[in-house]
Amino acid sequence: MTSELITGIGELTTQDDDHARLTDAAVVLEAGRIAWIGPASRAPAADRRTDVAGRAVLPGWVDTHTHVVFAGDRSAEFEARMAGQRYAAGGIHATVRATRAATDAELTATASTLRREAQAQGTTFLEAKTGYGLDLETETRSARVAAEVADVVTFLGAHVVPPDADRRDYLDLVTGPMLTAVRPYVDFVDAFCERGAFDVDESREVLLAGRAAGLGLRLHGNQLGFGGAVALAVELGCASVDHCNYLTPADVEALASSSTVATLLPACDLSTREPFAPARALLDAGASIALATNCNPGTSYTTSMPFCVATAVLQMGLTVAEAVWAATRGAARAVGREHGPDAVGSLRVGGRADLQVLAAPSVAHLAYRPGVALTAAVWRQGIRVSG
Ligand SMILES: N=CN[C@@H](CCC(=O)O)C(=O)O
Ligand SMILES: [Zn+2]
């Protein structure tokens, strides 16, 4: 088995409990895993040697919220929004029409292109949701495509009620035959708990059906207004509640005293002109947060985790270290992959060799030089996949 020594690391962010940041460090990769971490001067020999000349190295980004299985374009809707129109969940139907009309090959091609685009910017772990099919056939096709392209898949049949469907019948479909059909491909169940989509009781029904089928739980909530989604996510012990733009002090408190991660989506907030989620208040209260792109054609058409990290620092009041944590280890927590043999989002001996080199001496440059392409190289499971 070939081993690779990455040496000359100016700043190594491990996100490991033992040694968070090292200077003048080295890492050895072998068989897709980290075999050794320590000072460059004590590094063992390896078959191959890569000197990164004082650059910063950190775990690959963990993007836990994307909707990359879709067809079509909604740039006109975006432009109208930038001219003052408010975002409403109804735009989803345009993507549903295009997605239903697309072939599996077309859906796979788009999702794979976006995955590669993300990877070139340092993303080594990607979640993808269904939710633009909204009928049994297209949700199943979407789940299959997502499972081919992504590391973890979420069933979002409860995105909105399709226009041609009766509400009760659709919920029965989502919690019954549709759930059964997608089950082989998915890991989590989700619902869009928002005005214009599903209410708290309907969302609870969907999540409980998913739980009974053995799925993990996550929830879209409090994106467009105050409501009961966060309380529901905490009540059910969801791994994550995503968006969280409108939180009451009680919501913040509930998250802080739970294991549910608040996944914040700053690129979406900019694209919908919604207020940013109260990241500072969440952290100060003791809640766990993650950052994700929410890559989708309606509200957040970006695959760039560096953009999300920079925005979180520059506009949401996070320190650089907090934002990088939220996009790596915090994100791993949001998909239940913080610990164990399949853990991601941190660099530790025995763990997955998912890491990136920045064209910069420090992670601070991610926000210090916003908008600049700083990803120099990426390794995923020990294989150099970019740079
Ligand atoms: N909020 C719900 N769903 C997606 C966007 C859906 C769309 O407008 O296409 C989101 O996470 O923002
Ligand atoms: Zn979403």
Automatic annotation (TrEMBL):
Keywords for this protein: Cytoplasm, Histidine metabolism, Hydrolase, Iron, Metal-binding, Zinc
Pathway membership: Amino-acid degradation; L-histidine degradation into L-glutamate; N-formimidoyl-L-glutamate from L-histidine: step 3/3
Assigned EC number: 3.5.2.7
Residues that bind N-formimidoyl-L-glutamate: Y132, N296, G298
Co-factor requirement: Zn(2+); Fe(3+)
Catalytic activity from the UniProt record: 4-imidazolone-5-propanoate + H2O = N-formimidoyl-L-glutamate
Domain (Amidohydrolase-related) ranges: 241-361
Annotated Zn(2+) binding sites: H65, H67, H220, N294
GO molecular function: imidazolonepropionase activity; iron ion binding; zinc ion binding
Described function: Catalyzes the hydrolytic cleavage of the carbon-nitrogen bond in imidazolone-5-propanoate to yield N-formimidoyl-L-glutamate. It is the third step in the universal histidine degradation pathway.
Family label: Belongs to the metallo-dependent hydrolases superfamily. HutI family.
Name of this chain's protein: Imidazolonepropionase
